Amino acid sequence: MADRRRINGPAGQTAPPVFESPQGKRVVARSGDNAVRKIFLKTGVTPSASGSAYLEVEDPVANRPSGTSLKLTCTVHGPRALPRSAPFSPHIILSTHVKYAPFATRQRRGYLRDSSERDLGVHLETALRGAIIADRWPKSGVDIIVTIIEGDQNRDSLEYDRDEGWDMMNVLSGCITVASAAIADAGIDCVDTVAGGVAALVAEDTDSQPTIVLDPDVAAYDKIYAAACVAYLPTRDEVTNIWFKGQLPAADAMIYNKMVERSLVACRNANRVLVQALNETVGQKQNSQNPS
Questions:
Q1: Where are the alpha helices (DSSP H) in the chain?
Q2: Which residues share a beta bridge with 228?
Q3: What is the DSSP letter of 114?
Q4: Is the CB of residue 179 less than 8 Å from the CB of residue 146?
Q5: CA-based angle 262:267:271, to the nearest 5?
Q6: How many other C-beta atoms are found inside a 10 Å radius of the C-beta of residue 187?
Q7: Residue 67 pLDDT
Q8: Cβ contacts of residue 164 below 8 Å, gap of 6+?
Q9: 3-class DSSP state for residue 243?
Q10: Is 189 exposed, middle or buried, given 0-12, 13-18 or 19+ CB atoms closer than 10 A?
Q11: The whole model's pTM is what?
């Protein structure tokens, strides 16, 4: 009698799989330090939610499917009334939840949020709180859920462990932009659209001098000294959140201000994409209501 619980091997001979050797830091051709990667943004992707949006950042190496490409989705649920047992609040209660998909990064993520995901949620809440007109929704709550489908990492690099979490800056920038689009899609009153942008102090190789670049691709540089992620309201010219990470050289005292100013340039570029996506959504709704 055959053992049905045993997994038998193949009857004939087989050859073991041969994998390509992992590559190190890749070289990505950039048109300049002020160049940013292309962004795709679309709203209304989840019909069951009050508002939703999907964001994807261009892959610098299109012929490699495992290269860097940031993919985010955001859903907004609310505003809705708080439970009767909840204390009275004169403004809306904002709740943000940022979670990596288990397959989003090279190291598989768990189903419970870790400290990095909680930090992203706190920064996202701070960035959005300055844009929402909270006192128009008393004793109400809104849940903003951002799912990171694919992180901004190079999974083929041998030096992945040396990245030190610099990809989180680009992830937070994308979370801010996609959450702002989802909030606008939900019809929640805001003073302005908020967009995220990143600038970093990097060195392309061991012999080059550090320079400030916009929208840094972590896998393309030999060393990243510092990075700044800024949430910006372009029309009001206000900053709602700044997250700075790293160490700056003491020789240049104004380099921090320069990094923030360059981050604002990235924020304006992301805001153009955000405004264009919202205009397309409004145009589609108007065409559906007036087919003639």
A1: 115-129, 167-186, 255-289
A2: 199, 244
A3: -
A4: yes
A5: 150
A6: 10
A7: 46
A8: 224
A9: strand
A10: middle
A11: 0.85
Pairing of β 223-233 and β 140-150:
unpaired
pLDDT at 33: 60
- Asked if residue 69 lies in contact with residue 59, where contact means CB atoms within 8 angstroms, the answer is yes
pLDDT digits (tens, 9 = 90+) for 237-264: 999 999 999 888 777 778 899 999 999 9
Residue 126, amino acid: T
Burial of 175 per CB tally in 10 Å (0-12, 13-18, 19+) = buried
Six-digit token string for 12: 């004939």
Show the 3-state SS of 160-190. Answer: HHHCCCCHHHHHHHHHHHHHHHHHHHHCCCE
d(CA 37, CA 57): 7
Task: For residues 182 and 269, give the distance between their C-alpha atoms in angstroms, rounded to a whole number.
Answer: 18
Task: Yes or no: say if 148 and 99 are a contact pair by the CB < 8 Å rule.
Answer: yes
- The reported pLDDT for the residue numbered 18 is 74
Strands (E) across 38-83 are located at 39-43, 51-57, 71-81
What pLDDT shows up at residue 6? 73
Q: Which residues contact 21 (CB under 8 A, 6 or more apart)?
A: none
Residue recorded with tokens 């320069």? 258
DSSP codes joined into one string, 5-50: TS----SS------PPPPB-S-----S-TT----EEEEE---TTSS
- What is the H or E stretch that residue 94 is in? strand 93-100
Return the exposure string of 220-235: e unless at least 16 CB atoms fall within 10 Å of the residue's CB, then b: bbeebbbbbbbbbbbe
Structure-token pair, residue 170: 């680009």
Please give the pLDDT value at position 52: 95
Q: What is the pLDDT of residue 253?
A: 74
Over the stretch 108-121, which tens digit does the pLDDT of each residue have?
888 888 889 999 99
R_g of the chain, CA atoms, integer Å: 22
Amino acid 66: pLDDT:
47
Q: pLDDT below 50 — which residues of the chain?
A: 66-67, 161
